[in-house]
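Long-time lurker, finally posting.

We've been working with histidine kinase (Streptosporangium roseum) and I want a structural starting point before designing mutants. I don't trust myself to interpret raw outputs, so I'm hoping someone here can both generate the structure tokens and explain anything notable. Sequence follows.
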Amino acid sequence: MSRLAPARHLLNWRSLHWKIAALTAAAACAVTAVVGVLVHRATYDWSLTIGQQKAYRALEDATVAYARTGSRGEALADPDEIPAPMLGSLRRGVTLTWYDDRKPDQPWMWAARVVDGEPLAVRMEMGPERRSLQALDRHIVMAALAALAVVVPLAALAASLPTRRLRRVAQTARRISEGELDARIGMDGRRGDEIAEISAAVDSMAGSLQRWLLNEQRFTADVAHELRTPVMGLMTSAELLPDGEVTDLVRDRVRVLRTLVECLLEISRLDAGAERADRVPVPLGEVVEESVRRTGLQAAVTVTGAPVVETDPRRLDRIIANLVINAHRHGRSPVEVAVDGTTVVVRDHGPGFPDELLAHGPQRFRTGAAERGRGYGLGLAIALGQAGVIGADLTLANAPGGGAAAVVCLPERAQRG
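Top reply, 14 upvotes:
Generated this for you. Predicted structure of histidine kinase:
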């Protein structure tokens, strides 16, 4: 999968890699176009200047010959052939030049003056200069294409270096968001560029987040461990009290307190990553039915087929029991449990999960909306943590017909039978 990642990024036309290459190519095209226009214009002006000089010298020679022989000869053009715009601008003592490109394939450079009241004009063919200019334009285009053929791959190669570093930053950030708090980019900060600054900031943020979470986990574990002994003492003392209504109330509250302490200990172990799954092949339908029965709560269990999966039955029992208890505590009857293949769906018909819970996931000691009932908000958090231990996917959603639906998908690779 990792070998396909670079190819996937290369095929993504919206990637920063191709945007940098396209920007470089556009800049190269713009520079080439500007230089080409300047060269074309300079060469065009230069050819006109050379043509004007040749026409002027030819007119001088023809004028001298005309003054000596009185004949126009072959050098001088017939007055009827002189272009009208030029003929109308002739003045005594003024020599005019005019570029005649009315026929693009046969341009001429004219030079004319008035001698003894007669208009004298010569014309020089500019076809070779025009063809030379066209050849120059073709060579400029070919040189530009050749330059792009070299510049674009080099730009793409150069762009791959910063984009590869950015992908490394993104991958590390995703690993941190998935719970791998010790992941670090570790990029050399001596480069001094913006990517190195981002990398250093992400590493610093990850370190601070890791310290903060470890302190929270340590505090939760310490509190749970410290409370365990006095709670056991309270339970022992409550059992010694004489039977009565007050004693039953005290025993019930002590049991609730003991359950809370056990949940805190379980949360601390899950946070510390100390839990390991003991996978064995189990009949999924029977395990789910037994888990529901052990809760002592009413729930309709439907099993399709006879699925057998390889998982940790104790942790799966914990997940199903917490979801069923959560459905009764925060939803409304009937509660339905459906087993289909490696998927288990626990659904109630209450108000559904709050939007905040669906957006951010279960939060400890928060039960969401008040209408979802009372509790400590640890059931779903424990179910989510235990699902991660056995490699299952726990998804929380609201059913289309109303009510909350928790979907547990066990990994297919663990399926047997």
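Before you design anything, note these points.
Residues 21 and 157 are 9 Å apart (CA to CA).
The two ends are 28 Å apart (CA to CA).
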